[in-house]
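dumping this here so i dont lose it
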């Protein structure tokens, strides 16, 4: 009977041990379950936050793209305006150059006509020019100063001056 008592006590101890182990396991499993639920909820909250952040970033990028498109179009319009102004400026510049060339041609024509008139009576004008050149040369003017003053070619003045020296 002593063996039965010991055997019964042993079975009771084993049953108690199994109950305690199950209780600890169920408590542990329950704690792990609650932890996993908390982690899952935290993960879902983070996913929602990330989705909202992505939505906001998408809206910001779309606004930025629209703004860039608008600015790009504005820049293209400004470039077109500048191109038109450059064409106008170029045309005005060409027109002014043509006017200057025409004025130069007219002035050249008048000079040529005056030379033609001088050639009609060459001896009297040439003699007067030579006298003026020699007179200024004797006063100490240089050939280039005389040429400017009398509106003559410097070569012509130098020739007359050198002939006078001989």
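and the seq i came up w/
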């Amino acid at each position: 009977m002593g063996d039965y008592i010991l055997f019964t006590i042993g079975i009771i101890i084993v049953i108690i041990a199994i109950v305690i182990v199950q209780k600890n396991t169920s408590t542990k499993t329950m704690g792990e379950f609650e932890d996993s639920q908390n982690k899952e909820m935290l993960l879902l909250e983070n996913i929602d936050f990330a989705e909202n952040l992505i939505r906001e970033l998408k809206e910001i990028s779309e606004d930025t793209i629209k703004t860039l498109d608008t600015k790009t179009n504005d820049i293209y319009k400004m470039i077109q305006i500048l191109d038109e102004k450059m064409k106008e400026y170029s045309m005005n510049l060409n027109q002014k150059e043509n006017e200057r060339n025409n004025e130069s041609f007219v002035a050249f024509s008048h000079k040529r006509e005056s030379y033609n008139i001088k050639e009609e009576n060459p001896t009297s004008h040439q003699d007067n020019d030579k006298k003026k050149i020699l007179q200024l040369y004797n006063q100490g003017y240089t050939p280039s100063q005389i040429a400017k003053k009398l509106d003559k070619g410097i070569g012509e003045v130098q020739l007359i001056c050198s002939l006078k020296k001989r």
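Helices lie at 2-120, 122-138, 143-150, 154-165.
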